[in-house]
Design brief:
Length: 114
């Protein structure tokens, strides 16, 4: 069955960095655009970044542009999100999914606080 397992979240101070991973299985990962999404406390889930099937094209929400980098390893069926210069407003549960948002995993908690 389809599985998307996010990991790498945690507690970090403002200005710090985290690298999130998303292990995918059960579908042709390399054929799909993939994306990262997040849900802050008390807010709706929002799109963060997306990447084309082979990684040649990337797009970012204005709120994270210049700070976050999305990447993928199609051999390992893994999606990544490198997050630098983290801000308290980046706090939330981070999810990976196809760009069409076909599947949702459990997400991984990111907390940016001093």
């Amino acid at each position: 069955q389809v599985q998307l397992v996010e990991s790498g979240g945690g507690l970090v101070q403002p200005g710090g960095s985290l690298r999130l991973s998303c292990a995918a299985s059960g579908f042709p990962f390399s054929s799909y655009w993939m994306g990262w999404y997040r849900q802050a406390p008390g807010k709706e889930r929002e799109w963060v970044a997306r990447i084309s099937s082979r990684g040649g094209s990337k797009n970012y929400a204005d709120s994270v542009k210049g700070r976050f980098t999305i990447s993928r390893d199609n051999v390992k069926n893994t999606l990544y999100l490198q997050m630098n210069s983290l801000k308290p407003e980046d706090t939330g549960v981070y999810y990976c999914n196809t760009d069409s948002r076909n599947y949702w995993g459990q997400g991984t908690q990111v907390t940016v606080s001093s």
